[in-house]
Design brief:
mainly alpha, 308 residues, MetI-like fold, two-stranded antiparallel ribbon, 1% strand, MetI-like_sf
């Protein structure tokens, strides 16, 4: 079997013309360069976060730390509120993503049905909200009058139906084969049964995409915490706490000295090292989730292939 495979490879190599070989060489070279350009900023940031802060100021750190240390991470995670804020961020990301995807999908299915006579009006009404906004102060007053200020749900309710997500999901549902939905109606399935048993499973790729967008937004959001819940420590999120750490360090130019755990000496961190550490802390959870959603993007290329 191995010999047969080797022969096939040799035959394919012989059949390749000079132009094909040049194309493959250029293509592989460009892909390698693209990979390097994409990965270098993250690796460089990781190296700075693992390097001694005083030494990082000198520059010259590229792919490898010059003086290894975990003091930057110790400084960030020694904040008393950081772990509770992380739990709040995880909770708002999970709850916000699930509810947003479900609500957006239900509205998208409704306005995608040709039998819904108001679907054009509702679609235009949603799209107008992308161009017309009440402004910061009216929005705050609305949240206050609704009783959402000082509440966890102020992170969830305002973005339950995102117009951008709505358009993406609606376009995907409209592209599903009509004969599948018609067959469900002939078999006696109502709208709820059709939506949950047929539309949702077929729409997994687009729902995974919207879930990733929503999850990244919920995880990285900090401005809404600043607006509505800055006085409520129990509702603070990881991003907001990291933002406060960075502001405090920038105000003093150098963060306060601290004694690292298990170390008898003192270590000093700087705003430069804190920014790198915060970038890694904030981005790693999303990077861990992304590989599990990547397969749905590939699956989206073959979903819906039904022969008439």
């Amino acid at each position: 079997m191995a010999e047969l495979t080797a022969k096939r490879r040799r035959k394919r190599h012989i059949r390749l013309s000079f132009g094909d070989r040049v194309f493959e060489t250029v293509n592989i070279t460009l892909m390698v360069l693209l990979m390097v350009v994409t990965l270098y900023p993250f690796i460089n940031t990781l190296a700075i976060s693992l390097n001694d802060a005083s030494d990082s100021i000198k520059g010259g750190i590229y792919l490898w730390p010059r003086q290894w240390t975990l003091d930057n991470y110790r400084f960030v995670f020694e904040e008393a509120t950081i772990f509770h804020a992380t739990l709040v961020s995880i909770l708002r990301t999970v709850v916000g993503t699930v509810l947003t995807v479900m609500c957006s999908a239900m509205v998208a299915y409704t306005i995608s049905r040709p039998e819904y006579v108001l679907r054009k009006f509702v679609t235009v009404a949603f799209i107008l909200t992308m161009y017309v906004n009440g402004g910061l102060i009216p929005t705050f007053l609305l949240m206050r009058d609704l009783g959402l200020v000082g509440s966890f749900w102020v992170y969830i309710f305002p973005g339950l139906v995102g117009v951008f997500n709505l358009i993406i999901i609606r376009s995907f549902i409209e592209g599903l084969p009509d004969n599948i939905l018609e067959s469900a109606k002939i078999d006696g399935a109502g709208d709820y049964r059709t939506f949950f048993s047929i539309v949702l499973p077929l729409s997994t790729p687009v729902l995974a995409t919207v879930a990733l967008f929503t999850g990244v937004y919920q995880w990285n959001s900090w401005f809404d915490v600043f607006l509505y819940n800055s006085s409520y420590e129990k509702l603070s999120t990881l991003q907001y706490e990291l933002q406060k750490i960075l502001q405090n360090s920038n105000a003093s130019q150098t963060a306060p000295d601290f004694t690292a755990a298990g170390n008898t000496g003192t270590s000093q961190v700087t705003p430069f090292s804190i920014r790198a550490t915060m970038t890694i802390v904030a981005s790693v959870p999303i990077m861990l989730v992304y590989p599990f959603l990547q397969k749905y993007f590939v699956k989206g290329m073959i979903v819906g292939g039904v022969k008439e």
